[in-house]
């Protein structure tokens, strides 16, 4: 790895994190305004209508603009004159033996997003990152697991079991438990957060945690897919952790603890099965960095990864 | 629209005849009209594949803020075809939640659009505007009432529904035995849905409200409004669903009760 690569990735990481946060915040804002307020049409016929430009608009229209008004195209709250979807039933129901389609059945899925061998500057290991769910469209149990296996031993692992509830077209709210294991004492946390698709197609997970001894933590994970073709896909990904309070026995200090940024290029032999290669950069910061230095560990690491992504 | 393959069939007066296989059409973008109905129409249906689409694709998840600036038709001479009246869609209150990723307020009503991927390809493509059932409607009565159903979905959740409600969360639609009524479909998605009502004829109207064609399955294009009249002359419980069977299974399904 050249010295240049980490610096580039580092900049990319910061940009991606800040973009992801700003878009995640923006995605929430329309609900606070009146989504049914009329909006004046501005003359600008040939320009692409970008979400960015749209987000900046917000003028209220006068009554005589009414016929050309558009409400928002998703989300919001229904206007008072919205139709009652059950009004056509006149009280009829499905009787004692209702038909049931797939939407009433619980389904399950497992996505192993990363299962890879990691060749670092200082160390080699095997890493995994997976997500599984069981349930229906709007309420599911979600399991998230991420960890490193080093020398046949679980070095660092985070496992979460969450209830995931759909709250908006592209967003789920999640509530559950997180369990940290591997080296050092195990830690349990209460987990709460959001997972969804931010504008411009960023996949975002933002989770807050409350742990024992008054610990609090925040984790942001964002990834983006660039489709060169339908099968060849580049995925930049950034993950960062912030802790409110040090946990020296697990090598964690308070404040910004770590950032991992990487890109993976996968080839989908089938949709469900894709080998990939990638590069990743990981750094420890603040008090966590101090702890690592004191323990004689490296604080920055550039890695080459190769692995498999699969789901069913 | 992606192109992943094609099927070929040959109609010939004798065996062994084969026509040249045409080249596969280029992939096309969805147009503004496919997402915004009449708001995205550009002086009728001409020039649909304009450059504005490049920006649209990436802004889709952000449409919650879509306020259509730059779409002032009057200021730019984007004339609306007067023969295709604009009608505001009446959304169900259940279309404002997580089950719906798009709503069209001003759907287009034209029947002469070949549809996504078949426009301006140098070939004559038949549309509903070319279909006329000889002899007119089976029942000459006017509609006594009207019901509106919206074809909805959330492509990020793989959910398909009507009025934002999958079958499992829905209630039946009641037709009173013997009544003549109008059904209005508004497609709030970016896909065409062929809607099949079992047991009863669907007599599709043209945009001016005249009789067009009698069908079992009525295709509704993205951001399109299609209306038809039916006579509830068959007692019973009837399936009514999108004929893309995956959509049906996912919940784009209603029970119609004639009683």
Summarize the structure.
Chain A is mainly beta. Chain A contains 3 helices and 13 strands; from the N terminus they run ααββββββββββββαβ. Chain A is globular, with a radius of gyration of 23 Å.
Tell me about this structure.
The complex is a heterodimer of chains A (about 300) and B (about 260). Chain A is mainly beta. Chain A has a domain of about 200 residues: monomeric porin ompg (Porin, Beta Barrel). Helices cover about 15% and strands about 45% of the residues of chain A. In chain A, a hairpin with a 4-residue loop joins strand 9 and strand 10. The radius of gyration of chain A is 23 Å and the shape is globular. Chain A starts with a helix and ends with a strand. The N terminus of chain A is likely disordered. Chain B is mainly beta. Helices cover about 5% and strands about 25% of the residues of chain B. Chain B has a 6-stranded mixed beta sheet with strand order 2-1-4-9-6-7. In chain B, strands 3-11-10-5-8 form a 5-stranded mixed beta sheet. In chain B, strand 1 and strand 2 form a beta hairpin. Chain B is globular, with a radius of gyration of 19 Å. The termini of chain B are far apart. Classes of the chains: A mainly beta (about 300), B mainly beta (about 260). At the A-B interface, helix 1, helix 2 and strand 4 of A face helix 2, strand 1, strand 2, helix 3 and strand 11 of B.
Give descriptors for this structure.
heterodimer, A: 312 residues, mainly beta, Porin, twelve-stranded antiparallel beta barrel, globular, disordered N terminus, B: 259 residues, six-stranded mixed sheet, five-stranded mixed sheet, 3 helices, 7% helix
Number of helices of chain A: 3
CA-CA gap between termini of chain B: 42 Å
Mean pLDDT of chain A: 82
Helix content of chain A: 10-25%
**Remind me, CATH topology of the domain at 108-311 in chain A?**
Porin
Describe the global form of chain B: globular
Q: For the terminal residues of chain A, how far apart are their CA atoms?
A: 35 Å
Record field, number of beta strands of chain A: 13
Q: How much helical structure, as a percent, in the residues of chain B?
A: under 10%
Average per-residue pLDDT of chain B, rounded, comes to: 83
Low-confidence stretches of chain A: 1-71
Tell me how many strands of chain B there are.
Answer: 11
Structure annotation, total helices of chain B: 3
Shape of chain A: globular
Main pleated sheet of chain A: 12 strands, antiparallel, barrel
């Amino acid at each position: 790895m050249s010295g240049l690569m980490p610096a580039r990735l580092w900049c990319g990481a910061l940009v991606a994190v800040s973009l992801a946060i700003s878009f995640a915040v923006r995605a929430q804002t329309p609900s606070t305004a009146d989504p049914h307020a009329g909006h004046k049409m501005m003359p600008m016929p040939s320009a692409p209508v970008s979400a960015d430009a749209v987000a900046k608009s917000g003028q209220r229209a006068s009554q005589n603009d009414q016929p050309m008004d558009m409400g928002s195209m998703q989300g919001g709250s229904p206007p008072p004159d919205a139709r009652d979807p059950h009004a056509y039933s006149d009280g009829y129901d499905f009787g004692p033996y209702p038909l049931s389609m797939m939407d009433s059945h619980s389904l399950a899925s497992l996505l192993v997003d990363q299962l890879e061998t990691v060749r670092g500057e200082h160390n080699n290991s095997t890493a995994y990152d997976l997500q599984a769910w069981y349930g229906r469209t709007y309420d599911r149990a979600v399991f998230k697991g991420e960890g490193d296996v080093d020398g046949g031993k679980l070095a660092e692992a985070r496992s979460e079991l969450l209830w995931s509830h759909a709250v908006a077209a592209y967003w789920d709210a999640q509530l559950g438990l997180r369990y940290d294991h591997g080296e050092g004492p195990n830690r349990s946390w209460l987990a709460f957060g959001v997972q969804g698709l931010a504008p411009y197609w960023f996949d975002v997970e933002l989770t807050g945690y409350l742990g024992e001894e008054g610990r609090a933590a925040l984790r942001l994970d964002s990834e983006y897919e660039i489709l060169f073709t339908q099968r060849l896909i580049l995925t930049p990904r950034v993950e960062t952790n912030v802790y409110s309070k040090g946990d020296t026995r697990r090598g964690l200090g308070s404040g910004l603890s770590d950032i991992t940024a990487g890109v993976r290029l996968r080839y989908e032999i089938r949709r469900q099965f894709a080998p990939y290669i990638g590069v990743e950069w990981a750094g420890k910061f603040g008090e966590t960095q101090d702890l690592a230095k004191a323990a004689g560990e490296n604080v920055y690491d550039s890695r080459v990864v190769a692995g498999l992504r699969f789901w069913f | 629209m992606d192109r992943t393959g094609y099927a070929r069939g040959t109609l010939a007066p004798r065996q062994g005849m084969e026509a040249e296989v045409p080249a596969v059409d280029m992939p096309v973008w969805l147009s503004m009209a496919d997402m915004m109905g009449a708001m995205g129409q550009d002086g009728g249906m001409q020039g649909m594949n304009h450059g504005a689409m490049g920006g649209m694709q990436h802004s889709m998840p952000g449409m919650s803020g879509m306020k259509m600036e730059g779409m002032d038709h009057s200021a730019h001479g984007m004339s609306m075809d007067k023969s295709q009246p604009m009608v505001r869609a009446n959304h169900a209150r259940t279309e404002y939640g997580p089950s719906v990723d798009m709503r069209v307020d001003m759907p287009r009503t034209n029947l002469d659009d070949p549809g996504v991927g078949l426009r301006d390809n140098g070939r004559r493509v038949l549309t509903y505007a070319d279909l006329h059932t000889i002899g007119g409607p089976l029942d000459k009565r006017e509609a006594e009432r009207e019901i509106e159903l919206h074809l909805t979905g959330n492509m990020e959740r793989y959910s398909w529904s009507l009025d934002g409600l999958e079958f499992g969360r829905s209630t039946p639609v009641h037709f009173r035995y013997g009544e003549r009524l109008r059904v209005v479909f508004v497609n709030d998605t970016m896909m065409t849905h062929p809607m099949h009502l079992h047991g009863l004829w669907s007599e599709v109207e043209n945009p001016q409200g005249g009789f067009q064609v009698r069908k079992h399955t009525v295709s509704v294009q993205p951001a399109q409004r299609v209306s038809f009249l039916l006579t509830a002359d068959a007692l019973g419980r009837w399936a009514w669903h999108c004929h893309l069977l995956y959509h049906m299974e996912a919940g784009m399904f209603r029970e119609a009760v004639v009683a």
